[in-house]
Design goal:
The chain is an alpha/beta fold. It has a single domain, classed as 3-Layer(aba) Sandwich (Rossmann fold), CATH 3.40.50. It is built from twelve helices and eight strands. An eight-stranded mixed β-sheet has the order 1-2-4-3-5-6-7-8, with helices on both faces. Helix 2 packs across helix 3 and helix 6 packs antiparallel against helix 8.
């Protein structure tokens, strides 16, 4: 994998927040926007950014509450996926980005789809990696969550799996994987995630986002209408051992999208930790095609 473009690590002051982001390539109104999942950060894209930066301006922000972006307490900031999407929109506007290929995964899937449904004209293509927008992708592992969302009682809260701790952070990377696949994961990834997640008050922030995920599920019908009306070119990438984001979601995308390319890997939830080179190569082609259709020179 060619690593020629340099990654820059920067901050912007936006709506009272200091937002950290990584970027590669020459700044342009047309870009690739990479949105990370939970409990990770733009660090997830460390191997993909330099490759994409060779062909397009590429931006990977840390969502508020994640990575090196500010993590104000619940009384200081409204932690909803819609609000996070507004911060990312503000960042892109500040950077002069007008249109983009959008990469979403896990918790950034609701963030990205708020952006896409709010401004469909800006989205030149969608890359979805282990992120649900169909009921098919929500398997029985979500049953306890659904009960809590419907009735947020202490009893239903106590029935939720423990995940907002160090072990849960690590297990997000490793659960469901054979030993030879586990050995491919660099340990610093979940150690960095936990160091940021365990900032004072941040556990409560992440639990609030988990509770807000119910609104994303409630938007599945609206997202289906967006797919049907706008039919953005779509690249679906999936780690097949993900225990929470079921592989059935890939077929759901297949049924919904007219321009779809899908790749399934022998990997887990954090696909880029083990298959960054393969994903980067696919995205270079996908981005080139999307820009060609839009009449953008690469």
């Amino acid at each position: 994998m060619k690593l020629a473009a340099k990654t820059r690590h920067r901050y912007r002051e936006l709506e009272g927040l200091r937002v950290h982001y990584r970027e590669a390539g020459t700044p342009s109104p047309t870009a690739v926007v990479l949105l990370h999942g939970s409990p990770s950060s733009s660090y997830s894209f460390r191997d993909v950014l330099p490759v994409l930066g060779e062909v397009a301006y590429t931006v990977a922000p840390d969502l508020p509450g994640f990575g090196f972006s500010d993590a104000p307490g619940l009384h200081e900031f409204e932690y909803t996926f819609e609000r996070l999407s507004q911060v990312i929109d503000a960042l892109l506007e500040d950077l002069g980005v007008e249109r983009y290929v959008l990469f979403v995964t896990d918790y950034s899937t609701p963030v990205g789809y708020y952006m896409a449904t709010r401004h469909p004209e800006r989205v030149l293509g969608l890359v979805v990696q282990n992120g649900n927008v169909h009921e098919a992708g929500l398997n029985e592992a979500w049953d306890a969550s659904r009960r809590f969302w419907a009735e947020p009682t202490e009893e239903n809260k106590a029935a939720l799996p423990e995940w907002l701790n160090f072990d849960g952070t690590r297990d997000t990377y490793l659960t469901g994987l054979r030993e030879e696949l586990r050995e491919l994961h660099p340990r610093e990834s979940w150690h960095l995630d936990w160091e940021r997640l365990s900032r004072p008050g941040n556990i409560e922030v992440h639990f609030q986002l988990f509770y807000d995920y119910r609104k994303h599920v409630a938007r599945f019908g609206e997202i289906a209408k967006y797919h049907a009306e706008y039919q953005p070119a779509c690249l679906v990438l999936w780690g097949r051992h993900d225990t929470f984001f079921d592989i059935a979601e890939v077929l759901a995308y297949h049924r919904a999208m007219t321009r779809l390319e899908a790749h399934i890997y022998d990997a887990g939830h954090f696909l880029l930790e083990t298959h960054a080179a393969e994903v980067a190569d696919l995205m270079v082609t996908f981005v080139g095609d999307a820009f060609d259709r839009a009449g953008v020179a690469v």
